[in-house]
Amino acid sequence: MTGGVAGHYAEAMRVIIVETAADVAKIAAERIAQAVRERRAAGAAAVLGVATGSSPLGTYSELARMVQAGQLDMSGVGAFALDEYVGIEASHPESYHAVIHRTVTEPLGLDPTLVRVPDGLAADLDLACRAYERAIVDAGGVDLQLLGIGANGHIGFNEPTSSLASRTRPKTLAPQTRDDNARFFDSPDQVPVHCVTQGIGTILDAKHLLLVATGAAKAEAVAAMIEGPLSSMCPASALQLHPRAAVVIDRQAAQQLTLTEYYEHIERHPLSGARGA
Ligand code: F6R
To answer: CA 48 to CA 58: how far, in whole Å?
Structure first.
């Protein structure tokens, strides 16, 4: 592997610590843009994995800016969302169908027919989840999966104790996740109890992983993900298994890491070319 997004990952999680949330957005957007351009150079359109929540919003804005400025061509680019609530209509403003449309599909000018979100209204959720897995495979797999992290260490809606090998399936949201997401609803009891989510095994199948986190509320989960044991108690620790995972965090989200100087040293002395891949 050489150069670009594929370049200088060292079979370890790459940890990029920057000062502000705006810096996180810029770096993450640039890495996504690079993945799109690399796929285009290889004669294909990229397939992105996209997350909802607050964390990736700055990244999406930055990508939209690049598209508007003519610096990035998103034509033909497909996207798969990580998750969806069970039981709320796609037209509900906080359904992930609606959120992805509002924050990703429209601002980035994606073809809506190429943007998929799991079906939380299917009569047979297991069947719908299997169809979602198949759709990802049929699209050639996800080139780059963008992730946020829950304060409890979840990725997608894989809550603590989720199987590290799990596939897309229905799940019960953790009480903390419902509390955290209550801000998007009129009242906490409106937050759905169940969801469908890509599994950790599904997420790990993406060719590249890119996780963004900002703020002190994420510091404990970020430290557990990067420096804690591989454990279903911190689902994001599964990123330790991925050969091409990068984590972009601000100073506050990095505050409980113990090896900060080492991560910064690595960034100052990048491995390059084949030796670093
Ligand atoms: C979003 C998702 C979640 C969020 C996480 C962080 O599709 O699956 O894992 O990334 O809950 O949410 P925010 O970014 O709102 O703190």
So the answer is: 17
11-35 burial code (b ≥16 CB/10 A, e <16) = eebbbbbbeebebbbbbbbbbbbbb
The rounded distance, in Å, linking the Cα atoms of 262 and 226 is 13
44 Cα: distance to centroid of ligand 1 (angstroms): 29
Strands 115-116 and 78-81, bridge-based pairing: parallel
Which residue, by CA, sits nearest to atom 2 of ligand 1? 156
- Looking at residue 2, what is its pLDDT? 40
What is the band of 3 on the pLDDT scale with cuts at 50, 70, 90?
very low
* Residues designated catalytic: 83, 152, 154, 159
Ligand 1 binding pocket (C-beta < 6 A) is: 51-55, 82-83, 148-150, 154-157
Residue 8 predicted with pLDDT over 90: no
* Percentage above 70 pLDDT, the chain: 94
- In whole angstroms, give the CA distance from residue 252 to residue 68: 31
Between the CA of 272 and the centroid of ligand 1 the distance, in Å, is 32
- Residues 89-107: tens digit of each pLDDT: 999 999 999 999 999 999 9
**90 token code pair:** 């796609």
Cβ neighbours around 252 below 10 Å, total: 18
Mean pLDDT of 153-178: 97
Find how far residue 112's CA is from the centre of its chain.
19
Local structure of 107: helix, strand or coil: helix
Residue with the nearest Cα to atom 10 of ligand 1?
A: 148
Hey, whose CA ends up nearest to atom 15 of ligand 1? Answer: 53
**Which atom of ligand 1 is nearest to 156's Cα?**
8
pTM of this structure: 0.95
The Cα–Cα gap between 229 and 25 comes to 28
